[in-house]
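Response to reviewer comment R2.3. The reviewers asked that we include at least one raw input/output pair. We reproduce the pair for Phospho-sugar mutase here without editing.
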Amino acid sequence: MTDLEAAARAWLAADPDPATRAETQALLDANDEAGLAVRFGGRLVFGTAGLRGPLGAGPLRMNRVVVQQTSAGLARFLLARGGAPSAVVGYDGRHNSKVFAEDAAAVLAGAGLAVTLLPRALPTPVLAFAVRDLGVSAGVMITASHNPAPDNGYKLYLGGADAGSQLVAPADQEVLAAIEAVVAEGALPPGGTGVTIAGEDLLERYVRATAAVASGTAPADVTWVYTAMHGVGLETVQRVLPAAGLPAPAVVPEQAHPDPDFPTAPFPNPEEPGTLDLAFALAAGTGAELVLANDPDADRLAVAIPDGDGWRRLTGNETGLLLAWRIASRSSAAGGALACSIVSTPGLARIADRFGFAATETLTGFKWISRVPGLLFGFEEALGYLVDPDVVRDKDGVSALVAVLAAAVELRAEGRDLAGLLAEIEEAIGRFDSDQVSIRVDDLAELGRMVDRLREAPPARIGGLAVESVDDLTAGGDLPPTEGLRYRLAGGARVIVRPSGTEPKLKVYLDVVSTAPTAVERRAETNAALDALGAAVGPLLGV
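Raw output as returned:
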């Protein structure tokens, strides 16, 4: 019997799920070594946003055994910290999310924790809010965010000194060690009873806190369209809007309610081409002037505005600068900070400097952004925005929606619009444009080799621009060490090369800036610079 077969048979004996037991048995019956290897040849580990992977059998898939073992390890970690630990568990509308959440809650309760379970599928930011609101030791959210339908995940927040942020080192390794200890014992932990179902008052507190983001907004009528992308955002958004005094949207009916198969958006990331087509069609039919979209767990926000006869999707960087400008220009805080990930636009530093705030770059992920001292606002280019750090210490697509809609309403009252505000920001700080090139690989080891080749033969020029300095991100410094290289180029341009934290891809982030006198000149300059940098990526990486 091979090691893989032995692991599969041990798993089969412990698995409580008939579907994944049948999957494992079929692989054993067929002597499918390759199928066994991709399920039993390792274990999911905590990445940028917790555990995440396809549904299926084995420790390299998301299933009930993985959820129960992970929850037992979390319980051991919390109990080792002392005191009387507690937890809150939430879930989205994906396949198996509810049963995974119930399993997690039962295991945590069985270990002696006081456990609260959210009453139904709700947005991830509601769970992140609940960690702080309830004052618990940890929060678990069962979600795979905007991943395709076959995936699910386990996202972990810590209370106490971590104040509701996602876990970082050394806690992540301590939790992993506790999980491994549970696995080594070979038996699933017992479940417990006595889980408390959260009342509607918790959601109402989130609604009130989120509505306050629009405080002071002058009333004005804005016609807009909303899509929940087959996710869980609609109910919460519809409760927040009247509390905030903001206008109701036309809702894309085909994508309004949770559907784990995402029939109109197989890859339900609002950045993906085609995912907003139904929203644009509804906007055309209703004369809307704004489209807002959440991803399936409502922790991200996409924004689109009219552009001639069509629609202009704002990039995450554009929306980030817009929100940063609004928040910084309205804030009376002294000594606060605006923050973004290292791969987000350098334009944020210009806004921070203009309004007298600190500008901070962090590693990718809101587990880092949320921990910036004195944080007023944080974002990353992948449509994630943290607009209310005192309420939620994670990206929150609902509060970001309120902030963008409030800005649109305020501008309307002044006879202006979001496009005009973006033009004003560009006039003030320059035009910052960004692009991204992704190179997918079959062999994960190739990602490291590609970066190592650049270290061994550093370029003097990229896309015709001189390399002025190189930062090897593995060396640490102002940031914790991470794999990647950052090139600062002549004229304020920047290139960052780093492996993806969630996919077998090497990502290359391109940033350019122009302060030419006119908008036409600025656009021409940044477009040309991005084209040149993009064309240089292949030769730079030898692909």
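The first helix runs from residue 3 to 14. The chain has a mean pLDDT of 94. Further pairs are available on request from the corresponding author.
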